[in-house]
Amino acid sequence: MNVDDSLLMSYVDGELSPEQRAEIEAAIAHSDELAARAAALQASVLPYRAAYDRQTVPPVPESLTRRIEELVSVSTPQERKAPRGTRRFSMQWAAAAFVAGAICSGVLTGYLGGYNPLNRGADPWVQSVADYQVLYGRDTVSNLREDKASTEQVLADIHQRDGMPVDVPDLRQVGLKFKRVQRLNYHDRPLIQMVYLPERGDPVALCVIEENESDAPVRSGQVGDMKTVTWRTNRLAYVLLAKAPSLDLQAVGNSIASGKTVPLYSDRAEGARDS
């Protein structure tokens, strides 16, 4: 059973069925790493709901509720989504919490108006990825270990089930250490996320989705706090993104898009590792 952080968080929050909970507990009992991750997530659970229950918040705009649902669909595979009624309630509560916090800090402008000047021109899927990735900090992935067998299995599933010829670029030459690859979901379409960690600063992500569009050159942009580099080739759309990157993202994107960056675990990459 593949137990990722989203499934562990559902376990910690008590949102799983008894059968799923029993499976997670069995997996935790046989894995010190899973036990440590579950304990860390449990320690991060704070009484946010009770705090917001005591607050008077304005009505939640329907557009904001839909936006949060889009973000959740990126991070949560379709088969793990909650029943519709439960999901609707949780989305409304999450949106209300967001509105209250945003009003207190005075940063609500782009959301209620449906417009944010930093997001102009971004494709919807890039916007959703950026909104998701901005939640990542260094601690999110710093303790993850590179797992060659797991990575190759995920890629094999993507190749066979989704027909997407996606490989993990070897970015060690530019100071980025590969951490993990995940198959996420965007509007019932597979969205592949690869996460790297630089020597300093926040993670860098490379995300890929299938798009029936013509090729497009490498282009830099910004979505909110995230620097982005996008391109399309062979019906695959890519975005490389990070907060305040310490390296030239466009140069890295050009190297990947032009095929100059070798896939991780390939013969050429292994030779570079040994040299």
Q: Please name the CATH topology of the largest domain.
A: Phosphorylase Kinase, domain 1
* Percentage beta strand: 15-25%
Query: Which homologous superfamily in CATH is the superfamily of the largest domain?
Result: MucB/RseB, C-terminal domain
Average pLDDT level: 79
3D shape? globular
Number of helices: 12
CATH architecture of the largest domain: 2-Layer Sandwich
Roughly how many Å apart are the termini?
A: 36 Å
| Major β-sheet annotation | 6 strands, antiparallel
CATH class of the largest domain: Alpha Beta
Indicate the radius of gyration in whole angstroms: 20 Å
Number of domains: 3
Number of strands: 6
Major β-sheet strand ordering = 1-2-3-6-5-4
Features:
single chain, 275 residues, alpha+beta, Phosphorylase Kinase, domain 1, 3 domains, six-stranded antiparallel beta sheet, 12 helices, 19% strand, globular
What does this protein structure show overall?
Strands 1-2-3-6-5-4 form a 6-stranded antiparallel beta sheet, with helices on both faces. The chain is globular. It has 3 domains: 1-45, no CATH class; 55-115, no CATH class; 124-274, MucB/RseB, C-terminal domain (Phosphorylase Kinase, domain 1). Mean pLDDT is 79; it is low at 77-89 and 103-119. The protein has helices at residues 5-12, 18-29, 32-43, 48-53, 62-75, 84-105, 109-113, 124-133, 138-141, 148-162, 249-257, 267-274, and strands at 176-186, 189-198, 204-210, 216-223, 226-233, 236-243. It is built from 12 helices and 6 strands.
